[in-house]
Amino acid sequence: MKSVFVTVGTTSFDELIAAVSSPPAMRALRSRGCERLVLQIGRGALEPAPRRGAALALDVFRFKESLAEELRRADLVISHAGAGSCLETLEEGKPLLVVINEKLMDNHQLELAKQLHRDGHVLYCNCSTLVETLQSMDLSTLKPFPPGQPEKFALFLDKL
Question: Which portions of the chain are predicted below pLDDT 50?
């Protein structure tokens, strides 16, 4: 797992950015062989300083026209539970760890993450359990998402 990509989509999720860029999370990623951590921070107020030449390089950006290249490069994607971010990652065939934003009132994201987890496609946690999840996760248990079935995903979303 050389490269990890973290995305918050078009929103802000400073708690995720703080959790994943914390020293314990960085140690957990490094212990799994991660050499590059890329943070897409969206509209967040927290903007960690990029680091080069460290044991774990850190790149940070707000938005890009497309996240496809970052998704292709990543060995693991850590994402908020936005439907678009989840679907794009799963369709790319990348292992996905979904981090729930517990501050959302009507939390459809939690329902989405739970269902995708029940179906075996993602792992999920919250910000307070992120480090523990990074240390104990077994990505080999994840099942590939069936390609070319966005209509099934849309039907599932309609039920939430």
Answer: none
DSSP-assigned letters across all residues of 109-135: HHHHHHHHHHTTS-EEEEGGGHHHHHH
**Residue 124 CA from chain centroid, whole number:** 9
- Residue 51, classed as helix, strand or coil, is strand
Backbone angles phi, psi at 117, to 5 degrees: -70, -45
**121: number of CA atoms within 13 Å, CB side?**
21
Q: Which of 137, 139, 110, 128 is nearest to 22 (CA)?
A: 128
**57-72 pLDDT, tens digit each:** 999 999 999 999 999 9
Cα gap 97→76, rounded to integer Å? 8
CA–CA dist 105, 120 (Å, integer): 26
Structure tokens at 13: 């999720």
Residues forming beta bridges with residue 4, ordered by sequence position: 37, 76
pTM (2 d.p.): 0.92
Backbone angles phi, psi at 48, to 5 degrees: -60, 150
Phi-psi region of 65 (alpha: psi -120 to 50; beta: other; left: phi over 0): alpha
In this predicted model, what pLDDT tens digit does every residue of 126-156 receive, in sequence order? 999 999 999 999 999 999 988 766 666 666 6
